[in-house]
Design a protein that fits this description.
heterodimer, A: 0% strand, B: 68% helix
Chain lengths: 304, 296
Protein backbone atom coordinates (compact mmCIF):
# COMPACT_ATOMS: atom_id res chain seq x y z
CA UNK A 1 0.00 0.00 0.00
CA UNK A 2 2.78 2.40 0.96
CA UNK A 3 4.59 1.77 -2.29
CA UNK A 4 1.44 2.17 -4.37
CA UNK A 5 1.01 5.60 -2.77
CA UNK A 6 4.63 6.44 -3.49
CA UNK A 7 4.23 5.49 -7.15
CA UNK A 8 1.04 7.53 -7.50
CA UNK A 9 2.85 10.51 -5.94
CA UNK A 10 5.50 10.29 -8.67
CA UNK A 11 3.03 11.49 -11.31
CA UNK A 12 2.53 15.03 -9.96
CA UNK A 13 6.25 15.19 -9.12
CA UNK A 14 7.20 14.37 -12.71
CA UNK A 15 4.67 16.89 -14.00
CA UNK A 16 6.23 19.63 -11.85
CA UNK A 17 9.74 18.62 -12.90
CA UNK A 18 8.89 18.60 -16.59
CA UNK A 19 7.09 21.95 -16.40
CA UNK A 20 9.98 23.49 -14.47
CA UNK A 21 12.53 22.26 -17.02
CA UNK A 22 10.23 23.32 -19.86
CA UNK A 23 9.82 26.84 -18.50
CA UNK A 24 13.43 27.27 -17.33
CA UNK A 25 15.10 26.45 -20.66
CA UNK A 26 12.81 28.94 -22.34
CA UNK A 27 13.63 31.59 -19.74
CA UNK A 28 17.35 31.45 -20.52
CA UNK A 29 18.33 34.28 -22.89
CA UNK A 30 19.04 33.19 -26.45
CA UNK A 31 17.24 30.63 -28.54
CA UNK A 32 17.79 27.32 -30.31
CA UNK A 33 18.36 29.00 -33.68
CA UNK A 34 21.08 31.43 -32.52
CA UNK A 35 24.04 29.29 -33.37
CA UNK A 36 23.22 28.51 -36.97
CA UNK A 37 22.05 30.76 -39.80
CA UNK A 38 23.55 33.94 -38.45
CA UNK A 39 22.45 35.68 -41.62
CA UNK A 40 18.89 34.42 -41.51
CA UNK A 41 16.31 37.07 -42.08
CA UNK A 42 13.74 37.71 -39.34
CA UNK A 43 11.08 36.03 -41.50
CA UNK A 44 13.00 32.75 -41.62
CA UNK A 45 13.46 32.75 -37.89
CA UNK A 46 9.80 33.61 -37.42
CA UNK A 47 8.80 30.71 -39.67
CA UNK A 48 11.10 28.35 -37.79
CA UNK A 49 9.63 29.43 -34.48
CA UNK A 50 6.15 28.93 -35.88
CA UNK A 51 7.03 25.49 -37.23
CA UNK A 52 8.16 24.32 -33.80
CA UNK A 53 5.26 26.15 -32.07
CA UNK A 54 7.68 28.35 -30.13
CA UNK A 55 5.49 31.39 -30.84
CA UNK A 56 2.58 30.01 -28.80
CA UNK A 57 1.99 30.88 -25.13
CA UNK A 58 4.05 28.76 -22.73
CA UNK A 59 1.13 26.82 -21.29
CA UNK A 60 -0.18 25.90 -24.71
CA UNK A 61 3.27 24.68 -25.75
CA UNK A 62 3.51 22.64 -22.58
CA UNK A 63 0.12 21.02 -23.05
CA UNK A 64 1.03 20.21 -26.65
CA UNK A 65 4.25 18.64 -25.38
CA UNK A 66 2.40 16.56 -22.76
CA UNK A 67 -0.03 15.40 -25.44
CA UNK A 68 2.93 14.27 -27.52
CA UNK A 69 4.43 12.35 -24.59
CA UNK A 70 1.19 10.43 -24.18
CA UNK A 71 1.74 9.19 -27.74
CA UNK A 72 5.38 8.40 -26.97
CA UNK A 73 6.56 11.42 -28.95
CA UNK A 74 9.12 13.63 -27.23
CA UNK A 75 9.30 16.06 -30.13
CA UNK A 76 11.95 16.86 -32.72
CA UNK A 77 15.38 17.98 -31.60
CA UNK A 78 15.71 21.69 -32.33
CA UNK A 79 19.44 21.37 -32.97
CA UNK A 80 19.56 18.17 -35.06
CA UNK A 81 16.33 18.86 -36.86
CA UNK A 82 16.21 15.62 -38.85
CA UNK A 83 16.13 13.57 -35.68
CA UNK A 84 13.58 13.23 -32.95
CA UNK A 85 14.59 13.39 -29.30
CA UNK A 86 13.55 9.74 -28.90
CA UNK A 87 15.85 8.75 -31.78
CA UNK A 88 18.87 10.48 -30.29
CA UNK A 89 18.25 9.14 -26.80
CA UNK A 90 17.48 5.70 -28.22
CA UNK A 91 20.83 5.64 -30.00
CA UNK A 92 22.97 6.94 -27.15
CA UNK A 93 21.24 5.42 -24.15
CA UNK A 94 22.28 1.76 -24.69
CA UNK A 95 25.93 2.86 -24.83
CA UNK A 96 25.66 5.01 -21.72
CA UNK A 97 23.71 2.27 -19.91
CA UNK A 98 26.38 -0.33 -20.70
CA UNK A 99 29.22 1.91 -19.62
CA UNK A 100 27.34 3.08 -16.52
CA UNK A 101 26.43 -0.47 -15.52
CA UNK A 102 30.05 -1.59 -15.94
CA UNK A 103 31.28 1.34 -13.86
CA UNK A 104 28.68 0.68 -11.15
CA UNK A 105 29.63 -3.00 -11.00
CA UNK A 106 33.25 -1.95 -10.67
CA UNK A 107 32.46 0.62 -7.98
CA UNK A 108 30.34 -1.77 -5.93
CA UNK A 109 32.58 -4.76 -6.58
CA UNK A 110 35.68 -2.97 -5.36
CA UNK A 111 34.15 -0.58 -2.83
CA UNK A 112 32.06 -2.98 -0.76
CA UNK A 113 34.81 -5.59 -0.17
CA UNK A 114 37.37 -2.87 0.51
CA UNK A 115 35.14 -1.13 3.05
CA UNK A 116 34.21 -4.42 4.69
CA UNK A 117 37.81 -5.54 4.90
CA UNK A 118 39.16 -2.26 6.29
CA UNK A 119 36.43 -2.22 8.95
CA UNK A 120 37.14 -5.83 9.92
CA UNK A 121 40.84 -4.95 10.33
CA UNK A 122 40.14 -1.67 12.12
CA UNK A 123 43.25 0.06 13.47
CA UNK A 124 45.75 -2.26 11.81
CA UNK A 125 47.93 -1.40 8.86
CA UNK A 126 45.51 -2.98 6.38
CA UNK A 127 42.87 -0.53 7.58
CA UNK A 128 45.15 2.47 7.18
CA UNK A 129 46.36 1.39 3.74
CA UNK A 130 42.85 0.58 2.48
CA UNK A 131 41.24 3.72 3.89
CA UNK A 132 44.01 5.89 2.49
CA UNK A 133 43.55 4.28 -0.93
CA UNK A 134 39.80 4.98 -0.79
CA UNK A 135 40.45 8.59 0.22
CA UNK A 136 43.05 9.17 -2.51
CA UNK A 137 40.69 7.76 -5.12
CA UNK A 138 37.89 10.20 -4.22
CA UNK A 139 40.35 13.09 -4.52
CA UNK A 140 41.34 12.27 -8.10
CA UNK A 141 38.34 13.06 -10.32
CA UNK A 142 37.74 11.41 -13.69
CA UNK A 143 38.96 14.44 -15.61
CA UNK A 144 42.39 13.91 -14.05
CA UNK A 145 42.62 10.13 -13.97
CA UNK A 146 41.16 9.72 -17.48
CA UNK A 147 43.90 11.56 -19.41
CA UNK A 148 46.57 9.97 -17.20
CA UNK A 149 45.23 6.48 -17.94
CA UNK A 150 45.10 7.30 -21.65
CA UNK A 151 48.65 8.62 -21.72
CA UNK A 152 50.04 5.72 -19.71
CA UNK A 153 48.13 2.66 -20.90
CA UNK A 154 46.98 3.68 -24.36
CA UNK A 155 49.72 5.89 -25.77
CA UNK A 156 52.83 4.87 -23.88
CA UNK A 157 52.28 1.15 -23.22
CA UNK A 158 49.73 0.57 -26.01
CA UNK A 159 47.79 -1.98 -23.95
CA UNK A 160 44.38 -0.48 -24.64
CA UNK A 161 42.83 1.52 -27.49
CA UNK A 162 43.02 5.30 -27.05
CA UNK A 163 39.35 5.97 -27.67
CA UNK A 164 36.14 4.88 -29.39
CA UNK A 165 33.62 2.26 -28.42
CA UNK A 166 32.98 -1.23 -29.68
CA UNK A 167 34.74 -4.14 -28.04
CA UNK A 168 34.98 -4.89 -24.30
CA UNK A 169 38.63 -3.96 -24.71
CA UNK A 170 37.56 -0.39 -25.50
CA UNK A 171 35.45 -0.26 -22.34
CA UNK A 172 38.16 -0.90 -19.76
CA UNK A 173 39.73 2.55 -19.49
CA UNK A 174 36.38 4.42 -19.56
CA UNK A 175 34.99 2.08 -16.92
CA UNK A 176 37.97 2.71 -14.65
CA UNK A 177 37.80 6.47 -15.23
CA UNK A 178 34.13 6.54 -14.38
CA UNK A 179 34.08 3.96 -11.59
CA UNK A 180 37.19 4.69 -9.51
CA UNK A 181 35.80 7.76 -7.75
CA UNK A 182 32.59 5.96 -6.80
CA UNK A 183 34.45 2.88 -5.59
CA UNK A 184 36.24 5.13 -3.09
CA UNK A 185 32.99 6.73 -1.95
CA UNK A 186 31.39 3.31 -1.49
CA UNK A 187 34.38 1.92 0.38
CA UNK A 188 34.18 4.83 2.83
CA UNK A 189 30.43 4.44 3.32
CA UNK A 190 30.78 0.69 3.78
CA UNK A 191 33.57 1.04 6.33
CA UNK A 192 31.65 3.62 8.32
CA UNK A 193 28.49 1.52 8.17
CA UNK A 194 30.35 -1.52 9.46
CA UNK A 195 31.99 0.43 12.30
CA UNK A 196 28.61 1.87 13.35
CA UNK A 197 26.88 -1.50 13.16
CA UNK A 198 29.58 -3.34 15.08
CA UNK A 199 28.78 -1.18 18.12
CA UNK A 200 25.12 -2.20 18.11
CA UNK A 201 23.71 -4.42 20.84
CA UNK A 202 22.59 -7.21 18.52
CA UNK A 203 26.23 -7.70 17.56
CA UNK A 204 27.20 -8.03 21.23
CA UNK A 205 24.38 -10.58 21.58
CA UNK A 206 25.60 -12.53 18.57
CA UNK A 207 29.13 -12.56 19.97
CA UNK A 208 27.86 -13.55 23.43
CA UNK A 209 26.11 -16.53 21.87
CA UNK A 210 29.57 -17.67 20.86
CA UNK A 211 29.25 -17.09 17.13
CA UNK A 212 32.47 -17.01 15.17
CA UNK A 213 33.80 -13.61 14.10
CA UNK A 214 33.21 -14.31 10.41
CA UNK A 215 29.58 -15.27 10.98
CA UNK A 216 29.05 -12.13 13.09
CA UNK A 217 30.55 -9.90 10.42
CA UNK A 218 28.97 -11.49 7.37
CA UNK A 219 25.57 -12.68 8.55
CA UNK A 220 24.69 -10.16 11.24
CA UNK A 221 26.61 -6.95 10.62
CA UNK A 222 26.79 -6.85 6.83
CA UNK A 223 23.06 -6.64 5.95
CA UNK A 224 22.66 -3.59 8.22
CA UNK A 225 26.02 -2.02 7.45
CA UNK A 226 25.38 -2.09 3.72
CA UNK A 227 22.27 0.12 4.03
CA UNK A 228 24.13 3.47 3.64
CA UNK A 229 25.76 2.07 0.50
CA UNK A 230 22.32 1.05 -0.71
CA UNK A 231 20.86 4.52 -0.32
CA UNK A 232 23.92 6.03 -1.98
CA UNK A 233 23.65 3.70 -4.96
CA UNK A 234 20.26 5.11 -6.03
CA UNK A 235 21.58 8.56 -7.02
CA UNK A 236 24.92 7.05 -8.07
CA UNK A 237 23.26 4.69 -10.56
CA UNK A 238 21.09 7.50 -11.92
CA UNK A 239 24.24 9.59 -12.48
CA UNK A 240 26.29 6.79 -14.02
CA UNK A 241 23.58 5.30 -16.23
CA UNK A 242 22.71 8.63 -17.86
CA UNK A 243 26.26 8.99 -19.05
CA UNK A 244 29.19 11.13 -18.06
CA UNK A 245 30.23 14.09 -20.16
CA UNK A 246 33.87 13.84 -19.11
CA UNK A 247 34.31 10.18 -20.00
CA UNK A 248 32.27 10.30 -23.20
CA UNK A 249 34.13 13.38 -24.37
CA UNK A 250 37.55 12.02 -23.46
CA UNK A 251 37.10 8.63 -25.11
CA UNK A 252 34.81 9.77 -27.95
CA UNK A 253 32.03 7.47 -26.81
CA UNK A 254 28.63 8.01 -28.51
CA UNK A 255 26.51 8.15 -25.34
CA UNK A 256 23.97 10.64 -24.05
CA UNK A 257 26.16 12.26 -21.40
CA UNK A 258 27.50 14.61 -24.06
CA UNK A 259 23.97 15.72 -24.88
CA UNK A 260 23.30 16.54 -21.22
CA UNK A 261 25.78 19.41 -21.50
CA UNK A 262 25.53 20.31 -25.18
CA UNK A 263 21.76 20.44 -25.37
CA UNK A 264 21.60 23.03 -22.62
CA UNK A 265 24.39 25.04 -24.25
CA UNK A 266 22.58 24.88 -27.61
CA UNK A 267 19.18 25.76 -26.05
CA UNK A 268 17.84 22.58 -27.65
CA UNK A 269 14.60 22.93 -25.67
CA UNK A 270 12.98 19.59 -26.46
CA UNK A 271 16.22 17.69 -25.92
CA UNK A 272 16.83 19.28 -22.51
CA UNK A 273 13.33 18.47 -21.28
CA UNK A 274 13.58 14.92 -22.63
CA UNK A 275 16.88 14.35 -20.84
CA UNK A 276 15.65 15.90 -17.60
CA UNK A 277 12.63 13.61 -17.69
CA UNK A 278 14.80 10.58 -18.42
CA UNK A 279 17.08 11.39 -15.49
CA UNK A 280 14.18 12.12 -13.16
CA UNK A 281 12.30 8.92 -14.01
CA UNK A 282 15.47 6.87 -13.53
CA UNK A 283 16.36 8.56 -10.23
CA UNK A 284 12.87 8.31 -8.78
CA UNK A 285 12.50 4.66 -9.84
CA UNK A 286 15.89 3.81 -8.35
CA UNK A 287 15.09 5.61 -5.10
CA UNK A 288 11.86 3.66 -4.89
CA UNK A 289 13.74 0.41 -5.49
CA UNK A 290 16.27 1.40 -2.81
CA UNK A 291 13.51 2.00 -0.26
CA UNK A 292 11.96 -1.31 -1.19
CA UNK A 293 15.28 -3.11 -0.74
CA UNK A 294 15.75 -1.27 2.57
CA UNK A 295 12.64 -2.82 4.07
CA UNK A 296 13.75 -6.21 2.79
CA UNK A 297 17.23 -5.97 4.32
CA UNK A 298 16.41 -4.30 7.63
CA UNK A 299 13.49 -5.94 9.47
CA UNK A 300 13.24 -2.88 11.76
CA UNK A 301 12.22 -0.64 8.85
CA UNK A 302 8.47 -0.62 8.29
CA UNK A 303 6.75 1.74 5.91
CA UNK A 304 3.27 2.86 6.85
CA UNK B 1 46.84 17.65 13.18
CA UNK B 2 49.19 16.65 10.37
CA UNK B 3 46.38 17.27 7.94
CA UNK B 4 45.78 20.79 9.25
CA UNK B 5 49.50 21.53 8.91
CA UNK B 6 49.49 20.13 5.38
CA UNK B 7 46.51 22.28 4.47
CA UNK B 8 48.10 25.36 6.04
CA UNK B 9 51.36 24.78 4.15
CA UNK B 10 49.47 24.31 0.93
CA UNK B 11 47.46 27.49 1.39
CA UNK B 12 50.62 29.39 2.34
CA UNK B 13 52.40 28.18 -0.80
CA UNK B 14 49.47 29.07 -3.00
CA UNK B 15 49.04 32.51 -1.47
CA UNK B 16 52.70 33.47 -1.14
CA UNK B 17 53.97 32.24 -4.51
CA UNK B 18 53.07 35.44 -6.44
CA UNK B 19 55.15 37.47 -3.98
CA UNK B 20 58.32 36.03 -5.53
CA UNK B 21 57.46 37.92 -8.72
CA UNK B 22 58.52 41.25 -7.23
CA UNK B 23 61.17 42.82 -9.43
CA UNK B 24 63.53 43.48 -6.54
CA UNK B 25 63.56 39.85 -5.47
CA UNK B 26 64.37 38.36 -8.87
CA UNK B 27 68.11 38.77 -8.44
CA UNK B 28 68.21 36.83 -5.16
CA UNK B 29 66.01 33.87 -6.11
CA UNK B 30 66.61 30.92 -8.44
CA UNK B 31 65.05 31.62 -11.89
CA UNK B 32 62.42 28.89 -11.49
CA UNK B 33 60.61 30.87 -8.79
CA UNK B 34 60.04 34.19 -10.48
CA UNK B 35 57.81 33.50 -13.49
CA UNK B 36 54.52 35.42 -13.55
CA UNK B 37 51.57 33.07 -14.30
CA UNK B 38 50.41 34.79 -17.50
CA UNK B 39 53.79 35.72 -19.04
CA UNK B 40 54.07 34.27 -22.54
CA UNK B 41 57.53 33.14 -23.69
CA UNK B 42 59.11 31.27 -26.61
CA UNK B 43 59.88 28.22 -24.48
CA UNK B 44 56.91 26.07 -25.55
CA UNK B 45 56.29 22.66 -23.97
CA UNK B 46 59.49 22.65 -21.92
CA UNK B 47 59.62 19.55 -19.74
CA UNK B 48 60.19 20.12 -16.01
CA UNK B 49 63.77 21.34 -15.52
CA UNK B 50 66.00 23.81 -13.76
CA UNK B 51 64.57 26.92 -15.37
CA UNK B 52 60.89 25.90 -15.37
CA UNK B 53 60.44 23.62 -12.40
CA UNK B 54 57.17 22.12 -13.60
CA UNK B 55 57.66 22.78 -17.32
CA UNK B 56 55.73 25.13 -19.62
CA UNK B 57 52.53 25.00 -21.68
CA UNK B 58 51.67 25.73 -25.32
CA UNK B 59 52.26 29.46 -24.88
CA UNK B 60 55.51 28.96 -22.99
CA UNK B 61 53.93 29.97 -19.69
CA UNK B 62 55.44 28.63 -16.48
CA UNK B 63 53.25 25.79 -15.21
CA UNK B 64 54.25 26.08 -11.56
CA UNK B 65 53.05 29.65 -11.18
CA UNK B 66 49.93 28.85 -13.18
CA UNK B 67 49.15 25.87 -10.94
CA UNK B 68 49.54 28.10 -7.87
CA UNK B 69 47.32 30.78 -9.40
CA UNK B 70 44.78 28.14 -10.43
CA UNK B 71 44.70 26.56 -7.00
CA UNK B 72 44.17 29.99 -5.48
CA UNK B 73 41.11 30.54 -7.65
CA UNK B 74 39.84 27.01 -7.06
CA UNK B 75 40.09 27.44 -3.30
CA UNK B 76 38.42 30.84 -3.48
CA UNK B 77 35.56 29.45 -5.54
CA UNK B 78 35.25 26.48 -3.17
CA UNK B 79 35.00 28.71 -0.11
CA UNK B 80 32.65 31.33 -1.55
CA UNK B 81 30.47 28.71 -3.25
CA UNK B 82 30.21 26.88 0.05
CA UNK B 83 29.25 30.11 1.80
CA UNK B 84 26.47 30.70 -0.75
CA UNK B 85 25.17 27.16 -0.34
CA UNK B 86 25.42 27.55 3.44
CA UNK B 87 23.27 30.68 3.51
CA UNK B 88 20.61 29.28 1.18
CA UNK B 89 20.58 25.80 2.71
CA UNK B 90 20.47 26.87 6.34
CA UNK B 91 17.79 29.51 5.79
CA UNK B 92 15.64 27.18 3.69
CA UNK B 93 16.01 24.19 6.01
CA UNK B 94 15.58 26.20 9.20
CA UNK B 95 12.46 27.98 7.98
CA UNK B 96 10.91 24.75 6.68
CA UNK B 97 11.70 22.86 9.86
CA UNK B 98 10.62 25.68 12.18
CA UNK B 99 7.34 26.47 10.46
CA UNK B 100 6.48 22.81 9.97
CA UNK B 101 3.14 21.70 8.57
CA UNK B 102 2.13 22.97 5.17
CA UNK B 103 5.13 25.29 4.69
CA UNK B 104 7.46 22.44 5.50
CA UNK B 105 5.72 20.15 3.02
CA UNK B 106 5.79 22.70 0.20
CA UNK B 107 9.40 23.74 0.77
CA UNK B 108 10.72 20.21 1.03
CA UNK B 109 8.77 19.02 -2.02
CA UNK B 110 10.53 21.82 -3.87
CA UNK B 111 13.84 20.40 -2.67
CA UNK B 112 12.72 16.96 -3.90
CA UNK B 113 11.92 18.42 -7.32
CA UNK B 114 15.33 20.09 -7.61
CA UNK B 115 17.02 16.89 -6.40
CA UNK B 116 15.43 14.96 -9.25
CA UNK B 117 16.85 17.24 -11.94
CA UNK B 118 20.36 16.74 -13.31
CA UNK B 119 22.29 19.52 -11.60
CA UNK B 120 24.60 20.13 -14.56
CA UNK B 121 21.72 21.32 -16.76
CA UNK B 122 20.58 23.61 -13.98
CA UNK B 123 24.07 25.09 -13.48
CA UNK B 124 24.59 25.67 -17.18
CA UNK B 125 21.26 27.46 -17.48
CA UNK B 126 22.01 29.65 -14.46
CA UNK B 127 25.51 30.57 -15.59
CA UNK B 128 24.51 31.25 -19.19
CA UNK B 129 21.65 33.45 -17.99
CA UNK B 130 23.93 35.46 -15.72
CA UNK B 131 26.57 35.77 -18.42
CA UNK B 132 23.97 36.89 -20.96
CA UNK B 133 22.79 39.59 -18.58
CA UNK B 134 26.40 40.62 -18.20
CA UNK B 135 26.80 40.89 -21.96
CA UNK B 136 23.69 43.01 -22.16
CA UNK B 137 25.17 45.46 -19.65
CA UNK B 138 28.39 45.46 -21.60
CA UNK B 139 26.67 46.53 -24.80
CA UNK B 140 24.78 49.28 -22.97
CA UNK B 141 25.89 52.92 -22.71
CA UNK B 142 28.15 52.41 -19.68
CA UNK B 143 30.81 49.84 -20.41
CA UNK B 144 32.28 48.06 -17.44
CA UNK B 145 36.02 47.69 -16.98
CA UNK B 146 37.70 44.34 -17.64
CA UNK B 147 38.31 43.66 -13.97
CA UNK B 148 34.68 44.31 -13.07
CA UNK B 149 33.52 41.95 -15.79
CA UNK B 150 35.86 39.27 -14.48
CA UNK B 151 34.51 39.68 -10.97
CA UNK B 152 30.94 39.57 -12.20
CA UNK B 153 31.75 36.34 -14.05
CA UNK B 154 33.16 34.93 -10.82
CA UNK B 155 29.98 35.98 -9.05
CA UNK B 156 27.94 34.14 -11.67
CA UNK B 157 30.06 31.06 -11.04
CA UNK B 158 29.77 31.35 -7.24
CA UNK B 159 26.03 31.81 -7.52
CA UNK B 160 25.61 28.90 -9.89
CA UNK B 161 27.68 26.53 -7.78
CA UNK B 162 26.07 27.60 -4.52
CA UNK B 163 22.60 27.38 -6.01
CA UNK B 164 22.96 23.68 -6.82
CA UNK B 165 24.82 22.63 -3.69
CA UNK B 166 22.44 23.74 -0.97
CA UNK B 167 19.95 20.88 -1.21
CA UNK B 168 21.59 18.35 1.16
CA UNK B 169 22.30 21.15 3.63
CA UNK B 170 18.64 22.17 3.62
CA UNK B 171 17.54 18.59 4.29
CA UNK B 172 19.98 18.11 7.15
CA UNK B 173 19.19 21.43 8.84
CA UNK B 174 15.46 20.90 8.42
CA UNK B 175 15.66 17.48 10.07
CA UNK B 176 17.61 18.88 13.02
CA UNK B 177 15.36 21.90 13.48
CA UNK B 178 12.26 19.72 13.27
CA UNK B 179 13.54 17.58 16.13
CA UNK B 180 14.48 20.62 18.24
CA UNK B 181 11.50 22.89 17.83
CA UNK B 182 9.28 21.28 20.48
CA UNK B 183 12.02 20.76 23.05
CA UNK B 184 11.47 22.27 26.48
CA UNK B 185 14.07 25.01 26.15
CA UNK B 186 12.40 26.27 23.00
CA UNK B 187 8.99 26.25 24.68
CA UNK B 188 10.56 28.12 27.60
CA UNK B 189 11.94 30.78 25.28
CA UNK B 190 8.55 31.13 23.65
CA UNK B 191 6.79 31.47 27.01
CA UNK B 192 9.27 34.20 27.93
CA UNK B 193 8.02 36.11 24.90
CA UNK B 194 10.84 35.60 22.40
CA UNK B 195 9.92 36.15 18.76
CA UNK B 196 10.23 33.48 16.10
CA UNK B 197 13.35 34.95 14.59
CA UNK B 198 15.07 35.23 17.96
CA UNK B 199 14.15 31.66 18.93
CA UNK B 200 15.51 30.37 15.65
CA UNK B 201 18.69 32.39 15.82
CA UNK B 202 19.55 32.25 19.51
CA UNK B 203 18.08 28.94 20.65
CA UNK B 204 17.71 26.50 17.78
CA UNK B 205 20.48 27.23 15.29
CA UNK B 206 23.34 27.13 17.86
CA UNK B 207 22.37 23.50 18.46
CA UNK B 208 22.70 22.74 14.77
CA UNK B 209 26.10 24.39 14.26
CA UNK B 210 28.08 21.18 14.87
CA UNK B 211 26.20 19.29 12.17
CA UNK B 212 26.46 22.27 9.82
CA UNK B 213 30.22 22.54 10.32
CA UNK B 214 30.70 18.84 9.66
CA UNK B 215 28.66 19.07 6.52
CA UNK B 216 30.44 22.24 5.39
CA UNK B 217 33.81 20.52 5.41
CA UNK B 218 32.38 18.00 2.97
CA UNK B 219 30.87 20.72 0.77
CA UNK B 220 34.12 22.61 0.12
CA UNK B 221 35.86 19.73 -1.69
CA UNK B 222 32.73 18.83 -3.64
CA UNK B 223 32.32 22.43 -4.85
CA UNK B 224 36.00 22.56 -5.83
CA UNK B 225 35.43 19.36 -7.82
CA UNK B 226 32.35 20.82 -9.47
CA UNK B 227 34.16 24.03 -10.31
CA UNK B 228 37.01 22.11 -11.91
CA UNK B 229 34.44 20.25 -13.98
CA UNK B 230 32.78 23.50 -15.10
CA UNK B 231 36.11 25.14 -15.93
CA UNK B 232 37.05 21.96 -17.75
CA UNK B 233 33.91 22.49 -19.86
CA UNK B 234 34.94 26.10 -20.46
CA UNK B 235 32.06 27.52 -18.42
CA UNK B 236 33.94 28.42 -15.27
CA UNK B 237 37.04 30.54 -15.00
CA UNK B 238 37.77 32.29 -18.32
CA UNK B 239 41.28 32.62 -19.83
CA UNK B 240 43.83 34.06 -19.34
CA UNK B 241 42.95 33.41 -15.68
CA UNK B 242 43.23 29.74 -14.86
CA UNK B 243 41.73 27.36 -12.35
CA UNK B 244 42.91 23.81 -11.82
CA UNK B 245 40.05 22.53 -13.97
CA UNK B 246 40.88 24.72 -16.96
CA UNK B 247 44.58 23.83 -16.65
CA UNK B 248 43.69 20.14 -16.71
CA UNK B 249 41.38 20.76 -19.68
CA UNK B 250 44.10 22.48 -21.70
CA UNK B 251 46.49 19.68 -20.70
CA UNK B 252 44.16 16.97 -21.95
CA UNK B 253 43.64 19.00 -25.12
CA UNK B 254 47.35 18.53 -25.86
CA UNK B 255 47.22 14.73 -25.72
CA UNK B 256 48.61 13.29 -28.95
CA UNK B 257 50.27 10.07 -29.95
CA UNK B 258 53.62 11.61 -30.91
CA UNK B 259 54.80 13.46 -27.84
CA UNK B 260 53.44 13.07 -24.35
CA UNK B 261 53.22 16.32 -22.36
CA UNK B 262 52.47 14.48 -19.12
CA UNK B 263 53.36 17.42 -16.88
CA UNK B 264 50.47 19.48 -18.19
CA UNK B 265 48.01 17.04 -16.60
CA UNK B 266 49.93 15.40 -13.80
CA UNK B 267 50.91 18.59 -11.94
CA UNK B 268 47.56 20.42 -11.99
CA UNK B 269 45.87 17.08 -11.24
CA UNK B 270 48.24 16.45 -8.36
CA UNK B 271 47.61 19.93 -6.98
CA UNK B 272 43.86 19.33 -7.16
CA UNK B 273 44.24 15.92 -5.52
CA UNK B 274 46.46 17.22 -2.71
CA UNK B 275 44.12 20.15 -2.04
CA UNK B 276 41.10 17.85 -1.88
CA UNK B 277 43.02 15.33 0.22
CA UNK B 278 44.01 17.97 2.77
CA UNK B 279 40.44 19.32 2.93
CA UNK B 280 39.05 15.80 3.32
CA UNK B 281 41.53 14.98 6.09
CA UNK B 282 40.55 18.12 7.97
CA UNK B 283 36.89 17.28 7.39
CA UNK B 284 37.30 13.74 8.73
CA UNK B 285 39.12 15.05 11.80
CA UNK B 286 36.45 17.68 12.47
CA UNK B 287 33.73 15.08 12.09
CA UNK B 288 35.42 12.75 14.56
CA UNK B 289 35.73 15.66 16.97
CA UNK B 290 32.13 16.90 16.65
CA UNK B 291 30.10 13.84 15.84
CA UNK B 292 28.23 12.96 19.02
CA UNK B 293 28.03 9.30 18.02
CA UNK B 294 31.80 8.92 18.03
CA UNK B 295 32.19 9.69 21.73
CA UNK B 296 32.86 6.19 23.01
Amino acid sequence: MYFVKRILFLIPLLLVISFLAFALVRAVPGGPFDRDRKTASPEIERNLRAKYHLDEPLCQQYLRYLGGILHGDFGPSLKYRNHSVSDIIGQGLPVSLTLGAAASCFALGVGIPLGFFTAARRGRWQDYAGSLAALVVICVPGLVIGPILVMLFAIKLRWFPVALWGSPWHAILPTLTLGLYFSGRIARLMREGMLDTLQAQFITTARAKGLGEIAVLVKHAFPIAVLPVLSYSGPMLADLLTGSFVVENLFQIPGIGVFMVNSSLDRDYTMVVGLVLLYAVLLLALNLAVDFAYSALDPRVKYE
Amino acid sequence: MTSAVLLALLVALILLWPLFNRPGLAAHLPPGMTHPPNAVSDAQFQPPGAHYWLGTDVHGRDLLSRVCAGARLSLLVGLVGTAVSLVIGVLWGAIAGYCGGRWDAVMMRWVDVLYSMPSIIFVIMLITTLNALLEKWQSGPERLSGATVQWLQFTALFGGLGAVSWLPMARIVRGQVLSLRHRTFVEAARVLGAGHWRILRRHILPNVYGVIMVYLTMTVPSIILYESFLSWLGLGIQPPAASLGSLIASGSGEINSIRIYWWLIVFPGAMLAVTLLALNFVGDALRDAWDPRAED
